[in-house]
Amino acid sequence: LYYSEPVIENCTFILRTADNINYRVIDTQIGFNSVQRKNGLVIESDARVKLFNRSNQETESIFRVIKILDSKQTFFLITNDYVSSAIKIVDLYINRRTIEKIFIFLNQYITFTELMGVSKEMSVPRIYLSMILDIILVTYKKTNSIKEYKRTRQKVAFELAELILNEGLDV
Prior knowledge:
Low-confidence stretches: none
């Protein structure tokens, strides 16, 4: 993140930054209790700040920095969301992994070129079909205690082919 660049106005972001962040507090969030707890985390401070770039020059943009204490470490979240509570921002950051997993899965099974030039009516069913297939594979993997995802795909494909050949199902 280049702190000297202007903040994108129509895009809200939440970033985790290094512990050695250099900033100047403009003001603290009004109505913020000195300590708030959430999922074993302690939200120590919530402030509007100006950050310093690598040249130790103050940026023009104002950000919000939330300082969080974990049992093991201290970390900082930077955001341009001044409306949401500190607890909500921490929740969004913690739950980002669920969203990342969906995009990682889609990236593995649907290439960007497959969706290029395809209408919305064509691409949405492909995404849903891929997600349904993933649910089936994960369920099969857990039910049969298989460790590898690749092996699960092979077994499901083999069993489906066998079912089609033996039962005489039309494809």
